[in-house]
Amino acid sequence: MRKALGTILQYVIFLGLGIWIIFHMITTLKPEQRDELVNAIQSVNAWLLIPIFIAGFLSHIFRALRWRLLLEPLKIYPGLVNTTFAVLIGYVMNLVLPRAGEVAKCTILARYEKVPAHKMVGTIVSERAFDLLCLFVIAAAAFTIEAHVISDYVADLTRGIYDKILSHRVVLMSILAGLAVIAIALILVYRRHKETKVGHFMREMSHGIMSILHMKKRGAFLGYTFLIWFMYTAQIYLGFLSLQGTEHLAASVALVVLVYGAVGMIITPGGIGAYTLLVAEILTAYNISEVSAQAFGWIAWAAQTGILIILGVCSLLLINVYNRKRHVEIAVDRK
């Protein structure tokens, strides 16, 4: 009960932060700028939303294909359709309650593919860790390519962060110490209860985490990873083309926006407010007007969120229908 209340409180706080960011962004605009913002959003090339939707859908297909590769070392072989449904439903759940989607993915796939959910939890951890590594690589590449534009901006930002680290070093050291204590506690709990259900769960989860090291199709895994991030970048670049104020920006700028947008998605639930703020902030470094930068931020966030909601809700509606039909076909084949 206490844990649930803590989760709800955390969600409310960060959702409130996102709403405050939106309120702050809108109220700081002058009345004529608000009118310009609305006009800019209304002038978007709607036809380009179609390939943006397709790129978003393909990114989830590739993510489902990659997840199946992580499950193979655990001797779990789910179908592509159910895996895709699980991925999409997981993203929708994350919009409602952060991190609930990871659990939902495993439980949904376990229910319809008749496989153990606890074995799959570790693969989610390893997948997220690998994606974080990819984000760092993309950030390094993007900032290197675009250093001539954003070097001063990043230097000022880094200096501010460094000053904050110095002023809060006691808190940061306490957090690191706390993480170390948690890690030691987990090891002790596992050693003490390794023959119990708790120990079994931790052992199965560790197998899932290590599954990335035991894959036979590493080339395919890297290929799907590249395609996932390529589709993310394509969505942003197509978004540039859909708006007059950003249509001249290069594909390398889309990589920079991708990194900032990813950080925004982490800060608040579903990236509400934070995504638009960070994306608009970095676009101003490219001499994009504040109105056009905010317009693009809102369009990009709305498009990505809309894709998740549409595909996620469709998955919720179709997964039962698909599996009923599949079970009937299996029963007929057995006869």
Short description:
The chain has helices at 2-27, 31-42, 49-71, 80-96, 100-113, 117-145, 147-167, 169-192, 197-210, 218-241, 251-267, 274-283, 290-334. The protein has 335 residues and is mainly α.
In total, how many domains does the architecture comprise?
A: 1
Shape: globular
Overall mean pLDDT stands at: 78
Radius of gyration: 22 Å
Report on this model:
With about 325 residues, the protein is mainly α. The chain has one domain. The protein is about 80% helix and about 0% strand. It has helices at about 1-25, 30-40, 50-70, 80-95, 100-115, 115-145, 145-165, 170-190, 195-210, 220-240, 250-265, 275-285, 290-335. α3 packs across α13 (about 290-335), α6 (about 115-145) crosses α11 and α10 crosses α13 (about 290-335). The longest helix has about 45 residues, at about 290-335. It is globular, with a radius of gyration of 22 Å.
